[in-house]
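Summary of Year 1 activities. Much of the first year was spent building the evaluation harness for sequence design. The harness presents a backbone, in tokenized form, and records the residue chosen at every position. We chose the following record to illustrate the format because it has been used consistently in internal testing since the harness was completed.
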């Protein structure tokens, strides 16, 4: 019976043990002080109770050592909590170099997931054990929150922007995926499963699931079917900037500012092309708002990421 009534989620990611250690430290600290304070209240209420020879309380003038003690002990303890928590926060905020990107689009009330190899899932996420996974997430409607208790990671998923989260699962199994932000009447039903598999098993899953083509290939087809390549081409009279080697590069803009070409920038340029016009170009690009869904924008982004800069001299990016 108790297997169906878990009090504490499994610990199945590279950070979950660290999060638990801090949680238990906080619990222990709270329990210690709660017990101490209760005990002192009880003891003092007997010790200093009203007696015939002490009917009116005698005021005391205060004590500097006592004041300093209860300033510096809590200060030290809160700094310990702060530094400890900050270290875990940074570990959770900075993915390692070897991450695999997975894209998540949330909507009322489901999770839509796209793998780089092209597999698409709804409310399920398959990952290999031991591999760092970075989720790039956005929402089609309201704010959701991607929460996997067993990994001790949670990240809000917002419309009109990308949020990211990474984890490295350390134990195979099936884990709960919850939406942790109230998002409408079926919020509580916005649940899913994360399957953590042995690498070989994961390879089998990849091979067996119906992926028509890699994500970037779908993105390339979209790019061509929307005729993006009529303007974004490597020609002197091109009306749009060359996109080869764009990702991660600093882009100079009309008006003097510059911006790093990341997912946010590309998404904005597709939906609101006039917001940031590349230096040396006319504000000519039409918006693709309404024509492209969030999943398709992510496919185009995956494609643009594969366009590596050509060696200097050969079709040099302008
Ligand atoms: Cu989505 Cu709650």
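For this record, the design step produced the sequence shown next.
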């Amino acid at each position: 019976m108790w297997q169906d009534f878990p009090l504490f989620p499994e610990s199945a990611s590279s950070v979950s043990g660290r999060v638990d250690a801090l949680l238990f430290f906080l619990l222990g600290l709270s329990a210690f002080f709660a017990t101490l304070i209760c005990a002192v209240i009880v003891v003092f209420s007997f010790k200093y109770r009203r007696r015939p020879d002490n009917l009116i309380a005698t005021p005391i003038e205060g004590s500097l050592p006592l004041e300093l003690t209860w300033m510096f002990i809590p200060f030290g303890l809160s700094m310990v909590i702060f530094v400890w928590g900050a270290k875990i926060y940074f570990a959770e905020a900075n993915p390692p170099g070897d991450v695999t990107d997975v894209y998540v689009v949330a909507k009322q009330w489901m999770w839509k997931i796209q793998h780089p190899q092209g597999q698409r899932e709804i409310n399920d996420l398959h990952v290999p054990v031991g591999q760092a996974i970075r989720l790039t997430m956005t929402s089609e409607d309201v704010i959701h929150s991607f929460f996997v208790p067993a990994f001790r990671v949670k990240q809000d998923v917002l419309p009109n922007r990308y949020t990211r989260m990474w984890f490295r699962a350390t134990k195979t199994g099936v884990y709960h995926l919850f939406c942790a932000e109230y998002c409408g009447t079926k919020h509580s039903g916005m649940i899913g499963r994360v399957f953590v598999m042995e690498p070989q098993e994961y390879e089998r899953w990849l091979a067996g699931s119906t992926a028509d083509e890699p994500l970037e290939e779908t993105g390339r087809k979209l790019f061509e079917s929307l005729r993006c390549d009529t303007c974004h081409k490597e020609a002197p009279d091109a009306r749009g900037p060359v996109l080869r080697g764009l990702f991660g590069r600093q882009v100079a803009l009309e008006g003097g500012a510059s911006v790093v070409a990341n997912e946010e920038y590309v998404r904005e340029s597709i939906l609101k092309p006039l917001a940031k016009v590349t230096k040396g170009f006319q504000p000519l690009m039409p918006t693709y708002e309404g024509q492209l869904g969030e999943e398709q924008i992510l496919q185009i982004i995956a494609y643009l990421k594969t366009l590596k800069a050509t060696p200097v001299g050969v079709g040099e990016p302008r």
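The pocket of dinuclear copper ion is lined by residues 109, 144, 179, 181-183, 187, 190 (CB under 6 Å). Quantitative recovery figures across the full test set are reported in Table 2.
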